[in-house]
């Protein structure tokens, strides 16, 4: 028989996996303690015992999912053998795969949950800061690489532009809207390619 700590860890992971699937499928308002427990194949009384509240379970789902994606993103941005425009293409490819995997839906669901719960908003804000940190480091290096004028293109402004750009695309895509997206992505790609050409 598995040690109690291992058994608990396995059950917690089952709850997190179940909540992740349900957040994507039905959203937080459609999830009950019993439903997540049935999905996890575990006793419903353990949800609150292990996580304290359903809201905490949901945020833990977001934090766990985010950690996986940020590790992937950092690895890609750290590569010196691919150009800035290629990193852009890969980042946008990741956005597509993340949409398919349900991450943006979970992130936006939890943002909405936090609008009326300051403690949840603070934790979701930490997720936002994690993404900003990744982009700040990546953009800082790319701006040096391209020799961009930092007065004309302040780093924090560029990061905020990318963050709101990505959120806007996610919201529209989740609403079934794709108009202009391909042209917009290609426009940015051409701009990056022009910077690379000027550098050469």
Structural class: mainly alpha
Q: Beta-strand level of the residues, as a percent range?
A: under 5%
Estimated radius of gyration = 20 Å
Task: Please give the alpha-carbon distance between the first and last residues.
Answer: 63 Å
Number of helices: 9
Largest sheet: none
- List the uncertain runs: none
Please state the average pLDDT score.
94
Shape: elongated
Element string (H = helix, E = strand): HHHHHHHHH
Compact overview of the structure:
Helix content is 80%, strand content 0%. The chain contains nine helices and no strands.
SSE topology sketch:
Elements: H1 4-25, H2 33-40, H3 45-51, H4 54-77, H5 84-101, H6 103-114, H7 118-146, H8 155-174, H9 181-199
What do these coordinates show?
It is built from nine helices and no strands. By secondary structure, it is an all-alpha fold. The protein is 80% helix and 0% strand. Helix 5 packs antiparallel against helix 9 and helix 7 packs across helix 8. It is elongated, with a radius of gyration of 20 Å. The mean pLDDT is 94.
Characteristic terms for this protein:
mainly alpha; 200 residues
